[in-house]
Amino acid sequence: MLLVFSASPRWRARGLTARLAPYLRDVTDGDPGVAFSAITVPVLNTAAPAWGAAVNRLSDISSSWRRSRALVWALLGAGTGAALATIVALTHGPQPALLAVPLAGGAAAVVAEQSARRATERARSRRLHEELPVVLEFLALCLSAGEGLLDALRRVGSRGTGELAVGIREVVVEVGTGAVLTDALLAFARREDSPALSRAVDQLVAAIDRGTPLADVLHAHAADARSGEQRELIEQAGRKEIAMLVPLVFLILPVSVLFAIFPGVVMLDLG
Description:
Elements: H1 2-7, H2 16-20, H3 30-46, H4 48-59, H5 61-92, H6 100-144, H7 149-159, H8 163-176, H9 181-192, H10 195-210, H11 214-270
Helix pairs in contact: 5-6, 6-7, 6-11, 7-8, 8-9, 9-10, 10-11
């Protein structure tokens, strides 16, 4: 009877560990986890230096990827230059100057790749800077309506389609797997490397720690972001105004001077 009773399904509620497991990063049972940690912790402590070096190498994966991409572009440019030099040598004969064509092609390819990458990064940073006031105002509106910060971030991430929305979705996923909300926000600000976003996140984290109303903080940062955007627009208009003077000074003004002087010069020659 005891064997039959032990084999029957249990209708009691699940334990605390089983209930919390879907919401935490790593939850293990008591006895097996203790035994496993007792076995593996000395091994991990022994391998800590090698593991730290591996983590440091993985942290630099973006720079390594950029170097690899630049190397691929350099090889493609050098190969294209070598092909062109070979064609020219076959058609017009070998020339010493053709030896520099592959090097020039590789250098030009690297410069083009870096210029394209910088342009892409500037465009992404500009889009993020433009989206920041709207996202902050939407978060402030959600908080004013009674939602929590995590629910507001989840709503923005699910409804938004821009660069900030993608980053906010990553923050929500990290929090859902057990990360602290403030740590996830700070890591997101470090990844984006935007001064305006870093200031907003720092003030938001400080407001969370101090218990300051978050809606007021977000409204203030949205106003600051919009004023900064207006100031940047005015500065950009000033730079464009200076650039517009270049054709006026070097093209239109000399032509006007020529039209004014030319009749007098012709009359002097005829006289």
